[in-house]
## 1
Amino acid sequence: MNRYIFTLILLLGLSLPLSAQEAVPDIRVAIDVSGSMKKNDPHNLRSPALNLLVGLMPDGMYSGIWTFGQYVNMQVKYGKVNAAWRRKARREADKIHSRALFTNIEEAIQRASYNWKKPDKRYNRNLILLTDGVVDISRDADVNQASRQRILEYWIPRLKKAGVKVHTIALSENVDQDLLTTLSASTHGWYEQIDDAGQLQKIFLRLFEKSARRDTLPIEGNRFHVDDNINDMTLLVFHKPGAKPLTIHTPNAERWSEEKAPGKVAWFNEDTYDLVTIKNPQAGDWVLETEADPDNRVMVVTNLKLKVGPMSEHLLAGEALEVHAHLEQKGKPVMRQDFLKLVQFSVLDQTQGDETPASFSLQDQGEVPDQKVADGIYSQRLDTSLGEGLHTITIRADGATFQREYRHVIQVHGQLAKLDLEKDQGFLVQLRPEPNLLDTHSLNLSLKRADGEHSQWHEEHGVWRVTLPESLKDSQITVVMKGKRNNGEPVEVEYTRKLSLEQPKVAAAQSHGKSEEHDKAEEHHGKEQTGEHADTLTAETEHDKAEEHAGDEETHAKDSKEEHTNWTLVIWLTVMVNLLLIVIGIGVWLFLKKRKRKADAEIEQELKV
C-alpha cells in the first residue's frame, strides 16, 4: 500500500513543471606574465581587472588563477569561492608582473584544466586565457610549432568534449589570432582583441557574465529599485581616474561613501571602479551619485529570478535570434496568470555606437516563436534589426513591485567567409572562413576555372590559398565552399569573381557591395538562404595599409611616366637582353657538362684502381 502511495506521489510530482538545477559556475583564469607585457600593459592593469573579476564571483562557485611565462604557476589554488578565497586572490592579483621568459600557452591550458577530463552537467566550465603573444616555449621554431599543433589537435578536442568554453583575450595585434579564435570558436567561447589594457576591466565583466549567471536590476538615470525578494546586492560602478568619489543614496535618505558606510557594506575601490556589496539591502529606490556608465551593474541574489533560454554568441547578418524568458520563484517557474498579467517582458537590441536601442515586447500567446499559450514562457524573434556588428541584447521583466534584467552580447558577422584577390606572379586567391560561424574542419573548397584545369588549395593558419596563372586574366572564377555551420547545419556558398591585374587592391575595396560575388547558403531544413556577401579586401594591420598605400602611389607614379615611354626602344632592349641571357645560359650548360664528364672519368679511374 505504501508503495502505491509513493508511486502516486512520484507521478504527481513529475507532472508538475520543474526547473532544471542550475549548473555551478567554474571559472579558471590563466594570465600571461611574459616580458612583452611591459610594453602592452605598462601600468599592470591586469591586476585591477583581475580584482574586479574576483569581486564579482559569488560564494559557492569554483575558481582558480594561474600565471604563465616559461613556467606555469598556480597563483590562487583552485577551490570553492568564499570570503577567504577572495582575500587570497586579491593579494595575489597585486603580484602580477611582466618578467617571465617565453609564453607557454599549452602548459597554461594543461595546468588550468587538469581535472576537466569528461563532461559534468553539474558545472558550467569556463577558461579565460589572456595573452599578448604566440606559442613560444623554445628558441627552436619546430618545438614551438609542435606545441601549437598539440593545442589544435589534442587540447581543443579534449576541452570541447569536457564541455569547456574557452574565452580568449588578445592584448596585442601580434598574437596568434588564428590560434586564439580557433580556441574560442571551437569551444563556443568568446574572443576579444584589444590594443589598450585599460579595456581589460570591462572585457573581464563581459566574460564573467558569459560564464556565470547573475540576476541584475536595470539602472535608469543612475536610479534602480530594490524589492523585498533581494537578499544580497553587488554594485559595480565605473568612473574615470581622479573622478569625484562615489556616493550612494539609500531609500531612507542615508548617504554612503567608502569612508562612511555601515558594517554590512563591503566597499572595494580602484582608480577606475567601485565594487560595493550590501547584505540585506533595504527595499525601495536607490541612487548612485556619479557619472552614468552603460556598463554599471546591480547584481543581486534573489529568490525571484529571470530565466532566459540559450542564445547564440555569433550570427550571420539576416539570421533570426530567438529569445525565450520566464520567471522563477524559489526554483519553480511562475505560471500564475493573475501575477504575470502585471509583468511586462521586453527585449532591447543595442548596436555598438548606437545610443538608442530598438525595443520589442515578448509574448506568451502561442504564436511563433512562442510554443504554448499562457505557459509562463515569453518569446520574441529578432531578425531584421540584427545588422553586422556587436549587439547587446537586454531582456527585462518589469512588474508592479520588482524589476529584473539579463544582458547578452552577440557578434553579428556580415558573411561566412572573406575572399581576397591579390597580384602574385599571376593571381593569389585567399579565402578566410569565419571560424565563429563555420566548422572549419568540415570545409571542402573547389574552384571552377575558365580553362577547366584543377587547382590545389593550401590551408595555413585559417586561410585557404590558391595561385592561378596570369593566362586567366579577365576570365571568371567561381569558388565553392561546402561544409557545416558550428550548429551542425550544412552550408554551400559560391563566390564568383573576375580576374583582373589592372584592378588594384584598393580599388577593389572601394567597390565593396558591387562585386560579382553571389552567396548561397542551404539551411538544415532545406530552405534556401538568399543574400549577397560582398568580399572585403582589407589589409591585416595598419602597417600593411601604409605599405599598400605607398605601393599605390608608386604605381600611380609609374603609370604617369609610362605615358612618355619610347616603346620601340623598350622592345629592342628586351629582345637584346633575352638573346644575351640565352647565350650565357648555353655557355654555362656546356661548362657544367664538360665538368661533369671530367668528374665521372676521375671516379671511374678510382674504381679501377
## 2
Amino acid sequence: MTNLRFDELQLSDEIQKAVADMGFAEATPIQSQAIPVALSGKDVLGQAQTGTGKTAAFGIPLIEKIDTLQKHTQALVLCPTRELAVQITGEFKKLTKYIPDLFIATIFGGDSYERQFFQLKKGVHIVVGTPGRVIDHLNRGTLKVDKLQTIVLDEADEMLNMGFREDIEHILQQMPDERQTLLFSATMSPAILSIARQYQTQPEQVRVARSEVTAANIEQLYVNIKQQQKTEAMCRFIEYYGLKLMLVFCNTKLQVDTLVDEMQKRGLNAEGLHGDMKQTQRNMVMGRFRNTTVNILVATDVAARGIDVSGVDAVFNYDFPQDYEYYVHRIGRTGRAGKKGMSFTLLTQKERFKLQEVERFMKTKITKVQVPDVASILEKRQENFIEQIKEEVNGSEGANLKQYDQMVAKITAEIQDPKQIIAALMRLYLGDLQQNLAADMDFSETRSYERTDSGDRGNKRGFERERGFEREKTGNYFSDRNSRDREGNRESRGSYNRGENNQKMTRLFVGLGKKHNVGKSDIVGAFAAKTGIRGKDIGEIEIMENFSFVEVPETEVKNVIKVMNQNAIKGKKVTVELAN
C-alpha cells in the first residue's frame, strides 16, 4: 500500500497545521491504513511495533471526534507504563496545538492524587492512563465514563505480559456499549484476539509488515565478545563513531545499576532507569535525558516503554533481549523522523543462535563488526582534534584570533621550534591521548560459531562441545574447566592445565574486591596495561567482597606480582601474591 500524504486525509485545518509544524508531510504505513478506518467510526485492530507512528494513528482520529463544547471525558487511552502515558500525552499536546480548548489529563500510579483529582474535576476531554490508576479513579467516582465515545488499548500485548488482563477487562466492562474501540499491539497472540472478539465490534484489522518495521534508517551491527569486555567495547564504539545521545538496554535492574556505576567511573554522563526508582526520580532522569544533560540512558525494557526522544544516535543491546519482539522495540528508538541511527548488540558466544533467530524473525541481516582497537581510537581522537583546529581557523573572523597575537609573540620569542609549541598546547588541551583507554584487549573470539549452510543455527550439542562442555552418564552438562576446578581438582598453589594450549595457570590473590568497586574488566584492563600480559591469556577471575582471585599463566606469575605490587587498580593500591 502506498503511504498517503496528510493533506490527502480528511483532517481538520487545526490538525493539518499541527502535523505540518511537527515536520511531517507523509503518513507512515500504519497511519495511512488506520486513520481513514478510525475516522469512519469502525473499530480497529492494529498490529504495529514501537517507532511506526501508531500514537498519531489512533490519536488523530480520536482528537477529530472530540466536541470541545462538551465538558466531559470523551476518550480514554490505556497503556502499560507511566513513561508511555506521558509520551502519548506529549504527542497529543503537539497534535492539539491549534485546539486550545481541548483538555487532556494523564493519570498513573506514583503521581499526586491531588493533581489528578483537580484535573478530572475541572473537566477533561481525553484521559491517558495506566490500568491500575484508571480503576482507582473509576472506583472513587472521580473518572466518569458514561458519555465516553472512544477507548484505546495501546501496547495491549505488553499490558497482558505485565498481568493487566483482569484490569483491562474490568475497565472495558464499565464502558458504554455504544463506543469505538481501537486496539494496538505489536503481536496478535491468542489472548489479544480473545479480547478483540469479546470487546470489539467487527474490527477492521490493519498491520505493518515486519519488513516495514525494520527501518532502513537503522544500521544494525553486532559483535561477539566476552561478558567482561562489554563495557570497554561499548565505550570504544561510542567514541569511535562520535555518538552523542544513546539508549542502553539491560535485562535486569541490578545490571542497570552496575553498568551506570561503571560508566560514571569512566567519566561518562550516564544515568539509569528501572522499576525500583520512585516516579519523581524517573521523571528527573527522563527530563535530563530529553534535554541532553544526560546523554546515556541505561534502562530495562519495561522502564523504557514510552521513551520517545528525538535525536537518539544509537541503541546498545548490552544484554540480549529476552524476547525477539523486544529487539524490534529497542532499535526502533533510533533512526526516527528520517534520521540515521545505529544499533549495537553485544553478544556472548552462547547467544549467537539467538541473533540468528532475530534475523529470521525480522527478515534482515545484522552486520558483524570488530571492536575498534586502541590504535583506531587514538587515530580518531587525533582526526577529531585536527578537524576542530581547521574549523576554528577557517570559521573564525580574524579579530577572534588576533586577540592572541601578543601571547603568540611572547611564546615564539622564547621557544623557537613551532612544533614543540603546538605539541605542548595539544598536550595541555588533550591530556594523555591514551587517557581512559585500557590496554588493548583481545576481542577476538576463542571459538567460531557460524551458520550452517542452510543458515540455521548449529546443532546444540555441537555448540556445547565448542564451549567446552562434556556429558556424563547422568545426562547433565557441566563445564570441564570451571566445574571441576570448583570441585577441588586444582593442583597445589592453584596451578592446572588450561584447555587446548595445555598452558599451566597459577591462581593469584588480589587484595581488592566488590567493596572497592573493582570488577573483572578493571582487573583485566590493569593487568594487561601494566604487565603486558594479553587479556585473552588471563584465566578465571572470581570477585569476592574484600579480595579477588585471578588466574594467569605460570610463566607470567613473577612479572605480574612484581609489577602489580608497584601499581594500582582504579586508583587503589593493590596487593598481589600467590593464592593459598
## 3
Amino acid sequence: MPVRARYSRWDGTQVGFELDADDVLSEITDDLLYHGDLNAALRRLLQSGFRDRNDERIAGLRELLEKLRRRKRDELERYDLGGVYDDIAQELREVVDMEREGIDKLQQEARESGDARRQEITDEVAGERRMQLDLLPPDLASQVRELQNYEFTSSEARERFDELMEKLKQQLMQSYFNQMAGAMSDVSPEQVQRMKDMFDSLNRMLEQRERGEPIDPGFERFMEQFGDFFPGNPETLDELLEQMAQQMAAMQAMLNSMTPEQRAQLQGLSEALLDDMDLRWQVDRLSHNLQGAFPQAGWDRRYQFNGMDPLGFAEAAQLMERLGDIDQLENLMRSAASPGALADVDIDKARDLMGDDAARSLERMAELAKLLEDAGLIEQKEGRFELTPRGMRKIGQNALSDLFAHLAKDKLGRHDQDYAGIGHERAYETKPYEFGDPFNLSIERTVRNAIARAGGGTPVRLSPEDFEVERTETFVRSSTVLMLDLSLSMPMRDNFLAAKKVAMALHSLISTQFPRDFLGIVGFSEVARELKPEQLPEVSWDFVYGTNMQHAFMLSRRMLARQTGTKQIIMITDGEPTAHLIPGMSEPFFSYPPVQETVDATLTEVARCTKEDIRINTFMLDANSHLKAFVEKLTQMNRGRAFFTTPETLGDYVLVDFIEQKRALRTGR
C-alpha cells in the first residue's frame, strides 16, 4: 500500500514536533563543552529540566522533588493519626446510649404491664446491665471485649454493635492488605478459613524459597486457588510478594507513627476483633517472612502528623501506602544518576501523586538517554555514557551553528560564493561552454538544454550552444594548529566556554567544508599536549597555574612540519607566558608575574615558527597591558595578526578570519 500523508493549514493548535535527540544534545552542548563530562551534563539536565521545541516545560528533578515533598507535607499537616479511634469510640458510645434507651424502654413496658413480679425482675436486670455499662473500661480494646460478652437488652443496639464489629474487622484486615479489599469484605467463617489457607500457602512458598527448596504449590497453582484475593493480577511470585510487603510495611509505618498508647490500643483492638488465633499467627508469620525477603521495603518508616482530620482504619492504611509511594518515588528520583534510572518509575503512581504534567515530565526525562542512544549520538561503555563519532560531529555542528547565528550571512558568505577557475576541484556548479574551458561536460545539463531547445523525442540532437561544463576552482591546501589555553584563569575569567566552542566549531567547519585541510589541536597550561578531535568535547581546564606558550609553539611547529600547504597557528589565550621548559629539567619553570627568561624562551619558539613560514594569529581574551606588549612583540617577529576580543565575539573573529584567509588563498589575493 502506498504511504499517504494529509496536510492541513497551521492554526496554532497542532502539536509541532516531539522531543528528539538533536533537541537533547543541543541542551547539553554548552554544559558538556564547559565541564567536559557527558554524564555530568546529563545529570545536570535531569536536575534542571528544559523547554522543548514546542516551548513546553519539561520539569527537572529538583522541581519535581519539591512538588512531591509539598504533597507529603500537606498530607502530614492535614490528618491526625490518633483520630483512628475517635470514630470507633463515638460509635461505641452511640451503641451504649442505644442500649441504655433499650433498658429504659424495657422498664417502662414492665411498669405499664401492672405485673409487680415482672417489674421487680426487670428492675433487677436493668440495674445489672446499667452497672455493666457504667463499669466499661476506658480503652477501646477492653470496651470491645466487654461488649462482645455483654447480653444486650436492645436488639437494635446488638445489631448496631455487630455491624460495627463486622466493619472494624474488615477495615482491620484491609489495613494490613489493602490490595485484597474486595476479598476482605467477606469475613464469614468460610472466607476466614480460605484466608488462613492462603496465608499458609504463601508462607510455605516463602520459607521453601528461602531454604532453596522446590516451591510447592507453585505460583500458578496458588493463583488458581486464591487469585480472587489479588485484583492487581501479579504475574510472578516476586511481584505478588513485593506488593504484599509494601502493604504490610505501610501498616508497620502506621504503628511506628503512633504514640505508645495509640499503638497499644490498636494492637489490643486487633486481638479483640480477630479472635482467631491461627489467623493472627499466620499474619504475623507472613510479616516476619516478608521482612526477611524485602528488608528495604521501609519497615522502619514513621511520620509526624500535625493535622486535625481524623482517619479511619482503612483511610489510615491507604494514607500510609500513599506516603510510602511518595518516599519510594522521592528516593528513586533523588538517587537517579542518569535519565535511564527513571525507567523504573511507576508513571501511573507518579501521576496520582503529582499530576499529569509532572508524570509527563518524568516520562520524557526517562527517554533522554535512550533518544540519544537510538540516534547513535552516545553509547554506553562500562556503565558510563560516551559520545560516538556521530555525537562528536553533532556537538561541533551545534557549536558552529551557535557562532554562525551571531554573524550576518552577507558578512561570512557561508562559503556559498565560489570563484571559478581551471583547477581540479569541482565547485558543483555549471556554466555554458566557452572556447578554452576544460571539457568537463555536465551530461545532465547539456541534455536538458537540448530538450528545452528542440523538444522531446529521440534521438536527442545536441548543438554546441547546449554544452554546459562543470566549474572548477583552484585548490590550495592549508594546515592549521589551534592552540587552546587550558590554564585555570580561563574559567576564572569566564573565557573557557567561548574558547572551547570555537575549537569545536573550527573543527566542524574544516572537517565538513574543507576536508582536505589539516587541523591540529594543542592544549596548554603548565605544559602543552596534543589533543585528538575525539578528545575535544570532554577536554576541560587544568587545575594548575601556568601558561606555557613555549611548549605549545614547539608542539604546534612539529605537527605542522609533517604537513603541506600554507601553515598557520591560531592561539586563543587570556594571559601572557608564565611557564617554559628548561632542557634537562623534569618540571617546567613557572613564575608569575612572568620573568624575562620565560618571555625570551617563548619568543625563541616564535622565531623558529617564523623561519618555517608558519603564521601565528593571536586572539586575546583579556587585553591587559602585559599581554598586549607580549603579543605586539610576537606579531612584529612573525608578521601574523593579533585580535583583542571578548568571549561574546571570539567566534565571530576566528571564523570570519579563517574563512576570509581561505578565500584569499583560493583567489590568490
## 4
Amino acid sequence: MKITLIRPYYMHNPYEPPLGVAILAGYLEEKGYSVSIIDFEAAWVKSKDKIKKHIEAEDPDIVGVSFFTYDRFEAVKVANAAKELGKVVIGGGLHITFDPINTLQSIPSIDIGVLGEGEETLFELVKVLEEDRSLQDIEGIAYRRNGKVVINQLRPLISNLDSLPMPAYHLLPMVKYPYHQILGSRGCSYNCIFCASPEFWRRRVRFRTYKIVVDEIEYLIKNYGQKEFDFKDDVLFLNKEWTKNLCNELLERNIDIRWNCLGRADVIDEPLFKLMRKAGCETLRFGIESGNERILRVINKNITKQQVRHAVKVAKEIPFEVGTLFMLGHPSETMDEMEETCQFAVELSAEHYSFKPTDVYPGTQLFHIAVKEGLLPKEYNWFEKGRYKAGFLTYDDVPSYESSQFSRGPLEDTAKKFYLRTFFARAFTLKSLSDFNISRFRTEIGFIPKSSKDFRIFVSEVIRELRIKRTLKQRFLGIVVVTICILRKGGKAFYHRFKKSFQLGIRRTPLAGTLIRHR
C-alpha cells in the first residue's frame, strides 16, 4: 500500500520544511510502507488541476493531508482533489484534532481524522485499512459510522521520542529550503490562553536524547550542506541540563552551525546562554505578548516586565540578536495598554520585532472566552468562508479576538504603527555602525504601504517621529536610514503609492513645514 503525505499551499512560509510531515513519512517508511511527500507550499502549487496531476503522478492508495487552521481551505482543496481520484483521504494536525466533528461533517472528502500525535496512530490506521478491518478499536481517530461522526479514545503519547526514526528528508525538495528545522522536544507545560500547543501535547514535555539530535544535525549538513538551523521547540532551554549537553556535544564534534530558538523570559541562565552562543546560537526569540502587567496576568503568561527586561539585557550582553514577539487585542485590553506594549518594545530595543492581532484558534482557552463573551458562536463552523479576510499578519478566515472596543481592522492598523515606531526609534537614535546595520538589515520597516490608508499611517508616524525632540544630526541620519530601507524594501512600489496618495489629498499634510519647525 502506497501513501502520499501532503502539505497544502498557503504562502505561510514556503521556505520552511514541513518537519511534522517528514517525521510521519520516516515512521511509515521504517514500518515498510512506500511513502512520498508533496510539499505544495514549496512548489507554489494551488490550482486544483495541478494538485490532481501531482497526486496522479504519485498514484497512492492513501493521501494524508496536513490541516492547520490557517491553511484549512487549501487542505480541503487537496482532500477534494484526492477524493475525486478515488483515494482514501486522511486528515491530521492541530485543526482536525480540536475540530474533528465539524471538519468531518463539513468536508465529505475526508474519510478519517488523526487526532493528536500521529505516528503510531497513522501506522495502525494504514495497517487496518490494508487488511480491511474495523476502525472502532483504533485509538486517536475520528471517522463516520452510519452517517455520524465517531471519536475514538485518544492514544497515549509516545513515551520515548528516540523510538522515532529520522525525518524522511530525502522525500523533500531540500534545495528549496534556505535553513533546516530541527526538533529536540515536544510539548509545553505552560498555560497561555492563546496557544493550543499545551493542550495538543497534554502539558507534557518530552525530550529526545541530545546525541541523536546532534546526529541528525550532522546528517543534514553532510547531505544538504546548509548550516542554518531553526529549533522548533516550544521552549528549548526549559531543560537546562539537556541544552547544556546539546551545546557541549556540538562543540566536542566541532560542528559549525548557526541556529536560533524560542524561549521564555523567566527561564534565564547566563552561563548556559554563553555556552549556547559558543555553540552557534545567534538569535533568541522571546514570546512576550504584552507590555502591560495586568494583561500578562489575563493571558496566563506568568512573566513580569522586569523578568523580560532582565532576559533581554542578559541576551544582548552575551551577545545574541534578540527577537521580541507581541500580540495586540487581548481580552479586556485597552488602547492605553496597547500603547504601553509599544513603549515597552521600544525600551527593549531588540533586533527583531513582531506585532500582530491576537488570533483565535480551536483548542485554546481564548476560543472558549470568545464563545462565552458572545464574540463567536459555540458551534462555530470553521469551514464557512468569507467571515474574515486576510490582512496585515492575519489569515483568511481565522478570527481575531474582537471586542466592542477593537475590531480586526483597527488592530491591524495599530500593528503597522507599532512596527514603524520600533523601527524609527532605532533609525533616529543611531549610536554606532552596528545600530545602522541592525536598522537597515534586521529591524527595517515593518510594512510597505499597499493602500492610501497605509500611506497615511506611514506619513502620520513619520510626522510623529519628527515631532519628538531630536538633534539635527539624529533627524538627518534617521531620514537617510528610512530612505535606504524604503528603497531596499521596494522603492518603485513605494513611489507609486506615494504619488497616488498625494493625488488623493495627502499633499496637504504639512510634512515640509514639520521638517522646518523641528530643526
